[in-house]
Amino acid sequence: MSNEVLSGQEYLRKILLARIYPVARLTPLHKLEKLGDKLGIGKIYLKREDYQTIHSFKIRGAYNKMRQLSPDQRACGVVAASAGNHAQGVALSAKNLGTRAVIVMPTTTPDLKVDAVRRFGAEIVLFGDSFNEAYEHAKDLAKKQGLTMIPPYDDPDVIAGQGTIAHEVMGQCNDIDTIFVQIGGGGLAAGVAVYIKNLMPNVKVIGVEAEGSACMRAAIDAGSPCDIGFVSHFADGVAVSRAGDETFRLCKEYLDDIITCSNDEICAAMKDIFDDTRAIAEPSGALSLAGLKKYARTKGLKEGNHIAIMSGANVKFHTLRMVAERCDVGEMAEGILSVEIPEVKGSFLKFCEAIGNRHVTEFSYRVHRQDKARIFASIELTQGQSELNEICASLEHVGYKVTDLTSDTLSKDHIRYMIGGHLTANEKERLFLFEFPESKGALNEFLTQLAGTYSISLFHFRISGLEYCSVLCGFDVSNDENGEALKSFLGTIKYPYIEVTDNVAYQQFLC
Q1: Confidence (pTM)
Q2: What CATH code is assigned to 58-149?
Q3: Catalytic one among 82, 262, 311, 464?
Q4: pLDDT in tens, 153-200
Q5: What CATH number has the domain spanning 422-509?
Q6: I need a surface site. Which of 91, 341, 352, 391 has the fewest CB within 10 A?
């Protein structure tokens, strides 16, 4: 990125002069009738970037950046590191400009994404097991071959390209009150905010981050960009561990607020988009709408014109299985409870009587041969959290111990599929959550590293259609009192992980 620091007015000029439409499209603003009626906050509009050729806004920034290159730079070619929408944007832009494009992708990238980039004529280089390794290799190629790096977000020309969305929106909707925009590295949010605030400072611009990758919120809290480490890849389009330097500067100055949303809330927003438009957003594409809904619920929005950006629609079909499972929880139309019941006949009936005339959507139980047992239950809700609180109170009134697991990610991703086993008195276990790339050989490689070192006492993963798999793994530490051997072993594992031994659902059902 250039060391040049641009003012808001200079960014405004760059956005107005961006000539992106040889490859990008002026996308429609779609009114969400059903959601607007449900929320009662006026009119809700969705900016449909899924109409782009690559089904993502990323084409705007990539093309605008590449248009600024000198003839010599174009003659030498460009390089980018990406396994997602940015890769397609660079490849299509290069094809249009007659420029060589080299795209470096991790070796774990699914064939579907590799083929999507290759069909635009780009050269594919598979290198490394992570984005960071691919990015470093792309920088090496740039130096060795004289290629120009095309960054995904932290660059003034890229930011200006993304800002053209705001220019279009202002011509499509009168009297805008609020715009919600998703944040990954921050390029889209920075471009939209700097444009809007320099022309219409009364319009509120709200950034929206996924809870599992809230790097911009962390940067603002810390005073500068910082690496947040482990990130969730459910909304892979915003799965960034460190905000950009320039995007941080702009977002800090021009955003009115930042709100974070859970995966469940994102799933609920994907369903809202489908219900109103029959379009299927990718998780990051629906993030801004999830933020709009949450902001209206928690902070309030006056009646007016509110806009969310559907940034993309490159979703793997099998991801929809998880979306279907979780959208009701995100809408608080379903609650998940752990309930301790007596190990006697009729307990299930008594449980149903206690919750009243409500639909039990899931019930998991296994006899534990003691006087008490734990059940995992999901219950349909019509009045959200207040109704769930009422159910919990009813169960506690008849003597049952209740834990609300509705917001517990480990319960929903893993434990609901594993109920029925406990450790013996002499066994000790520590539990970790890993992220494996969804590729052949990842599991075998992990087990090969483990062989002869540690005993696995618990293991669960389920293909979700995402680029990464969430893997729950327990280790028998009965003979490792100080945990030194486990610490040494974990140091050899290249996959990201966090310890979850203290998770309440694990303690109740599996410990």
Answers
A1: 0.81
A2: 3.40.50.1100
A3: 311
A4: 999 999 999 999 999 999 999 899 999 999 999 999 999 999 999 999
A5: 3.30.70.260
A6: 352
